[in-house]
Amino acid sequence: IAAALDTWARGPEALPPPREPRTPVLPVEGERNVLITSALPYVNNVPHLGNIIGCVLSADTFARYCRGRGWNTLFVCGTDEYGTATETRALQEGLSPRELCDRYHQVHADVYAWFQISFDHFGRTTTPQQTRIAQDIFQRLQARGFVLQDTLEQLRCGACGRYLADRFVEGTCPNCGFAEARGDQCDQCGKLINAVELQNPQCKLCRGVPVVTPTQHLFLDLPKLEGRLEAWLERTWATGEWTPNARHITRSWLRDGLRPRCITRDLTWGTPVPLDGFRDKV
């Protein structure tokens, strides 16, 4: 505070010269390099003030502060474009998922530009570079034995010839009896639901009756990492700046034991799985 008051009293001439912007922004040896990311906004709607305030504005403020300090700063964001929500919205609007993403990515970019959010790069998750990076991460995990196979039971629509992701299913909530519950959550009682638990399920695409069918999926073998993770956490908790809430949540996960995490989906709109036997999944 004393240093801030002193600088304020001496006026603008006491400030260091502004940093000349570089393109692209890359780390510089011997300098303070700051990478700032904000949560990726989902691309199937028009952003509103809540998205601006809760997602990008605080990161933008911090990025401006860092640049004002003369630090080498890179502020990045982009639209999150893969997944079930995009497929669902594309069907509603009569577009392909790619056409939908192209439309809403431009809407998002225009809105943030109007608010003068100072991204150094505003990208998207559907680029060839993103695919190469994601598949490289997968292949390195696979080579090191951190990926395993297991069977899941999912609803499959015979008329559509596809497994149904949770948002493609509606039915009666097993908890409260609401007749229009989604395959992931009931909007009436708020309970999270596994789609196979729905009573009287219906395919949202054709209104046919799906059947519970086993299908193979790939899982991240988190239990294999548990010992090393606990040792790393003990070191970083002693030296890092973890918030009490972050420590509490992490401890609760470890206390209950880590479980394998499914990392594949029966969709067409996503990063292709580069493994024989799973190339129909993303």
TrEMBL record:
The keyword Aminoacyl-tRNA synthetase applies. It comes from the Eukaryota. GO terms for biological process: methionyl-tRNA aminoacylation. Its EC number is 6.1.1.10. GO terms for molecular function: ATP binding; methionine-tRNA ligase activity. This is Methionine--tRNA ligase, cytoplasmic. Belongs to the class-I aminoacyl-tRNA synthetase family. GO terms for cellular component: aminoacyl-tRNA synthetase multienzyme complex; cytosol. The keyword Membrane does not apply. It is found in: Cytoplasm. Pfam families: tRNA-synt_1g (PF09334). The gene is Mars. InterPro entries: aa-tRNA-synth_I_CS, Met-tRNA_ligase_1, Methionyl/Leucyl_tRNA_Synth, MetRS_core, MetRS_Zn, Rossmann-like_a/b/a_fold. Keywords: Aminoacyl-tRNA synthetase, ATP-binding, Cytoplasm, Ligase, Nucleotide-binding, Protein biosynthesis. PANTHER family: METHIONINE--TRNA LIGASE, METHIONINE--TRNA LIGASE, CYTOPLASMIC.
